[in-house]
Amino acid sequence: MKITFPHMGNMYLPAKAMFDDLGVETVLPPKNSKKTLEIGTKYSPELICLPMKINLGNYIESIEKGADTIVVTGSCGPCRFGYFAEVEKEILKDLGHNVEFVVLEAPDGNIKELYNRISKIANTKNMMKIAKGLKGGIGVLKRIDKFEETVLKLRPYEKNKGEMDKVYKSLIKNLENSEGSQAMIKLINQAQKCIEEIPIEKNRDILKVGIVGEIYTIIENFANIDIGKKLNELGVEVHKSHTTSGWVLEHLFYNSIGSTREKDIRNAAKPYVKTMVGGHGRETIGNTILYAKDGYDGVIQVMPFTCMPEIVAMSLLPQVQNEYHIPIMTLIIDEMTGEAGYVTRLEAYIDLLRNRREKYKNEKMLSWR
Amino acid sequence: MKKCYLGVDIGSVSTNIIVMDEEDRIVDTLYLRTQGRPIETVKNGLSQMKERLGEDVHVLGVGTTGSGRNLGGIMIGADVIKNEITAHGVAALHFVPDVRTIIEIGGQDSKIILLRNGVLYDFAMNTVCAAGTGSFLDRQAERLGIPIEEFGDLALKSNATVRIAGRCAVFAESDMIHKQQLGHNQEDIINGLCEALVRNYLNNLGKGKEIQGPVIFQGGVAANVGIKKAFEKILGCEVVVPKFANVMGAIGSALLAKEEVSKKGSTNFKGFEIADSNYAVKSFECEHCPNMCEVVEFYRDESLVARWGDKCGRWSNNINVESKKLAQ
């Protein structure tokens, strides 16, 4: 059994760590690239959203490298993600690839079936062993998410441009060459310390922007044309509202014990969306409001073209913008997206935020408008 | 000796060059078709402008904007390279300080820019559709055999309403053909098209945005009185078309260049002589990683002056070292 999984940010590293710990062989899909997207687009339904196109590209590239089992998380939420695995299975079958799909979900709440599936890919029925592997993987995941968050926060302040990128790049390279969660955790901890010690200039005039929207396009930097780094370079501190670790803990853990860590977000969104609208539509609204209350300068919504839940959120955002006096910009991405237009919009948006800040700073007003 | 600032807006359809004096007065404007050859057009434009100004000019600063801003900026040595949205906003504020809404429709792009208390407040730019922009109108005028300059005047002559589907350029065209076959006269159809495009613009970009007066209409399409009238009818308020509506982007970049030069004290302008230099662009696909970035190399008289297009900075960062060496 050679296991592979789709790319989503740096998630492949903790996944690899977990399978390493369990002694299961993995095939890492090549990094997301134009080629991945090209392959995925070629075989996907035309109007499906970008995440599936990239996923499919990942699978085909992995299969070429020898993978025979694909592991994906499932979702029972009313967003097309719930159908991805089924559609992809058929597409790969039509293409003549003989691979097995293991979807990590509990169909109709059948926990036993989920356990069967997990024990299949973990190659053991020993619950303790599985739990240990999972713990290691999540340990790596949480740390790497924290590391990324720190980079997005501190990079615009760094004294010598490029230092953080250097640490980041070498960390990823080292992680790719290491095995098992313990070794990875050690490496990330070192890098985290290293990055916090890089000399910074705290008194720079840096803006703060929150990123909301569809989780895949927020996390996967190939999909969002590396929005975090682009904003950092424009002198903006960035916070992303979704992380892989957040999603994993919420959906695999808190939700299954009937709890949630997202009460604040849901409460904030309540005046605009009372119920779940699929995907992360409600969270987009909630997070936007939390960012506004937190004194952020602006919020950017990133979504794949034709994403229904985000369209619902998008149509509510102008109202939020007016009521909370925070400029919100929406970026829709697709394989057709031209990077130049995207950069123009980002630049203009940052100009707008900067103008506002200057204007109101001079007038010594505490709130916008 | 005349002292002036230059503003250059290199768009997909047109390239505009303006000359502004020290008192922010517009001395001269030049409107050229880009025709897919921005380098040639900028060279051509600069040499024309130089001729018009005479020998006795001193350029204090220069700014570029538009989709070709980076290319043009490197060519002429711009002091400021700014996106079109900011440039349009700055120019509009200069002419109408209390402006609250800017409608900007150019060749390929349409934008709505909202300002409150003299600050950019919100904006939107067309994303997945270019129906209603200059290129589409151009094509329809050509199809009907009407010079684009007369297109708007014809719309004003209409006195009956014909409703055209304006959601998308392709649908609009086929619906127009359908209405022609039904026997509607040309003026009414053109008027219907203008109204459809305005509806489409407002539904696409204006969605959820509060359009308050004074409203300024700028960009190449502002010259079309039919569209202006349709905006006024649908918005129910006066729409102002400023005198320099089609070169506002260039004016904005000149104003920004003036501000920048006053801060740093000198200009990077390479002189009108660049019109005599030869520029060439070569490109190759970097095979260092699967991204396969298309790296563009920009040469001036056989020497490499810039590289761009790579995601990782492998090539574009490298150029700094080389250009430093050239300067020594």
What do you see in this structure?
The complex is a heterodimer of chains A (369) and B (328). With 369 residues, chain A is of the alpha/beta class. Chain A contains 15 helices and seven strands. Chain A has helices spanning 12-22, 34-43, 50-64, 81-94, 111-122, 127-154, 163-176, 181-197, 215-219, 227-233, 244-254, 263-269, 281-293, 308-324, 339-362; strands at 3-4, 69-73, 100-104, 207-213, 236-240, 298-304, 328-333. The termini of chain A are far apart. In chain B, 39% of the residues lie in helices and 25% in strands. Chain B is built from ten helices and 13 strands. Chain B starts with a strand and ends with a helix. Chain A binds chain B through residues 30-31, 33-36, 226, 305, 315, 317-319, 321-322, 327, 332, 334, 340-341, 344-345, 347-349, 351-352, 355-356, 359, 369, and chain B through 67, 82-86, 116-123, 125, 127-128, 207-210, 289-292, 311.
Summarize the topology:
The complex is a heterodimer of chains A (369) and B (328).
Chain A: E1 3-4, H1 12-22, H2 34-43, H3 50-64, E2 69-73, H4 81-94, E3 100-104, H5 111-122, H6 127-154, H7 163-176, H8 181-197, E4 207-213, H9 215-219, H10 227-233, E5 236-240, H11 244-254, H12 263-269, H13 281-293, E6 298-304, H14 308-324, E7 328-333, H15 339-362
Parallel strand pairs in A: 1-2, 2-3, 4-5, 4-6, 6-7
Helix pairs in contact in A: 1-6, 2-3, 6-8, 6-11, 7-8, 12-13, 13-14
Chain B: E1 2-10, E2 14-21, E3 26-33, H1 38-53, E4 57-65, H2 69-76, E5 80-81, H3 84-95, E6 101-105, E7 110-116, E8 119-125, H4 134-144, H5 148-156, H6 169-181, H7 186-204, E9 215-218, H8 225-235, E10 239-240, H9 248-264, E11 279-285, E12 294-300, E13 303-308, H10 316-327
Parallel strand pairs in B: 1-4, 4-5, 6-9, 9-10
Antiparallel strand pairs in B: 1-2, 2-3, 6-7, 7-8, 11-12, 12-13
Helix pairs in contact in B: 3-9, 5-7, 5-8, 6-7, 7-8
